[in-house]
Amino acid sequence: MKRLIATTALCLIALPAVADTRIGVSMTSFDNPFLTILLNGIRAEAGKTQGLALSVEDAQLDVAKQLNQVQNFVANGVDAIIVNAVDGDSTAAITQTAREAGIPLVYVNHPPAELDSGMPEGTAYVGSQETDAGRLQADAVCALLKGREAPKAVILMGPLENHAALVRTRMVEEAFARPDCQVEILEKQTANWNRVQAQDLMSQWLTAGLTFDAVVSNNDEMAIGAAQALQAAGGKGEIVVAGIDATADGLAAMQAGLMDVTVYQNATGQGEQAVRAAIAAAQGQAVPPETWIPFEPVTRHTMAEYLK
């Protein structure tokens, strides 16, 4: 089922065929299941437009490499640039490089630092409100823990420099401090979005004798890794396991009973909107500085709607 709701008029723009338009794309990493979905969305949307050519690069989690890729895009005279930022706090040089060259720049999924003060002219951002992701996840976990006495949880975080990881975690912490959802957080550590690292971390916690009622993960991959560690230790039992992104693997884990909650982030929709914005900007059209695609909570009762 394809779900896409954008909160700007950008999705209403009808883009004609373009002649020899080139868009440079720099991705944080090719080795990430969610970002693979995002990149596939970019490629699929670009494939619908005759005369459009993409040049896609893997920044390999390296801020300096990503800046160099953008500089190369500028040197090669692309018509627009799409960046999935490695580090949102280190985007100033990328933005400056594109603006000085007069090339439209669209950030996607990972918000740049510039978003806080307003996107500069010639730049735009396409993504989803991370505050909603953490809030929706926490609300679903709270509902599942209702009735338990003094419930406890552990949190698996993404990279500590990543905006999404920080915001999602903060929203969970705030929710767990509410009078209607009193959940004690026993541990909070990073597993860098990675399934294997999450599995190892969870194994360490279990070996140390840690007991808890919920595992709250900043993404599905870490939630899956944690669930696998629980299974290896005898099963997750009544422990609530929650992720974010509703990836194919995440939904499969829910079907298998390894996960209870996730939050759908429309990676495909973000990729499509980023391409549309880049094309429109390259053609001289006005592009909204921000395009927000909503998160949606997913439980075992609703997951059938999200299965492809």
TrEMBL record:
Belongs to the bacterial solute-binding protein 2 family. Residues 1-19 form the signal peptide. Its main location: other. Residues 23-285 form the Periplasmic binding protein domain. The keyword Signal applies. The keyword Signal applies. It holds the Pfam family Peripla_BP_4. It is found in: Cell envelope. It comes from Paracoccus yeei. This is Rhizopine-binding protein.
